[in-house]
Amino acid sequence: MNNISVVIITKNEGHILERTLQSIKSLTDDIVIGDNGSTDNTLEIAKAFNANIIQYNWQGFGHAKNIVVKAAKYNWVLAIDADEVPSVALVEEMKLLTLQNENEIFIIKFQNFIGNRKLRFGTWTNVSKMRLFNKNFTSWDDKPVHESIIKPVNTKLIHLKNVLNHYCHKDIMEYAEKMTFYGNEMAHRYFEKGKSHSFFKQYIYPIFLFFYNYIFRLGFLDGSIGYVAAYLYSYYVFIKYNRLYELKNNKDIKI
């Protein structure tokens, strides 16, 4: 077993967390759960896997993920979300890593699902993200949403061969709720940075993205779920720029 800590932030993840923790229990003896006020059985599941549970006040995703990284016992950290389930092959691949150079950051390919329906085309395909790194070398940035791991100038990126199964939305209702949440959060981030709004971005660009993901990226081959994925991603973009317009024009409309 490599000395790898697994860190996860949670809030009401009882529907998926057990499957995630079960998938990584042979990889590590150090699981750190950063919880933001779960009211379901999330903490009971975490305790059953002897996780180190940390409570914190919410200040955005980047801040939360850095809290759990700092609490990791080992320097090498696999940072995943509660709905990201490493495949058996990926776990075995990580066990064989030498992990001798702290400037290496490992990139993992995602296989995305809505419910238990695999997305093969369209919006959510060909996604890879940095997930395994040395906490002495790097950390998450402090963005409240769409956070990412910082790449110092001497970073060596390495792609792992096997996939991380991402059950990104348990159903369509949750998918729509998350797109509204992320759209609103991104609008506030854009507003704080002084980013521009336009009629094109608010109305034309979302329509373009729908056809791009559904037709040109072959989302229609995923059937009805491919249509939903393309539509809700376009909806997210509309919400983002519509809310930005409201903020810039002092509109007191809540999303």
Written overview of the protein:
The chain is 38% helix and 22% strand. It is α/β, with parallel strands linked by helices and 255 residues long. The protein has two domains: 4-169, Spore Coat Polysaccharide Biosynthesis Protein SpsA, Chain A (Alpha-Beta Complex); 172-248, no CATH class. Strands 1, 2, 3, 4, 5, 6, 7, 8 and 9 form a nine-stranded mixed beta sheet that branches. α5 (172-193) runs parallel beside α7 (224-248) and α6 packs antiparallel against α7. The longest helix has 25 residues, at 224-248.
Helix and strand layout, with pairings?
Blueprint lengths: L3 E7 L6 H8 L6 E5 L6 H7 L3 E4 L5 H10 L5 E4 L4 E3 L1 H8 L8 E11 L2 E2 L9 E7 L21 E14 L2 H22 L5 H18 L7 H25 L7
What keyword list fits this structure?
255 residues; nine-stranded mixed β-sheet; Spore Coat Polysaccharide Biosynthesis Protein SpsA, Chain A; alpha/beta; 9 strands
Category from helices, strands and their pairing: alpha/beta
Mean pLDDT rating: 92
Distance between the termini: 47 Å
The outline comes out as: globular
* CATH level-four homologous superfamily name of the largest domain: Spore Coat Polysaccharide Biosynthesis Protein SpsA, Chain A
Give the total of domains.
Answer: 2
What is the CATH top level name of the largest domain? Alpha Beta
Radius of gyration: 19 Å
- Strand tally, please? 9
Beta content comes to 15-25%
Helix content: 25-40%
Q: If helices are DSSP runs of H or I spanning 4 or more residues, what is the number of helices? A: 7
CATH architecture of the largest domain: Alpha-Beta Complex
Order of helices and strands: EHEHEHEEHEEEEHHH
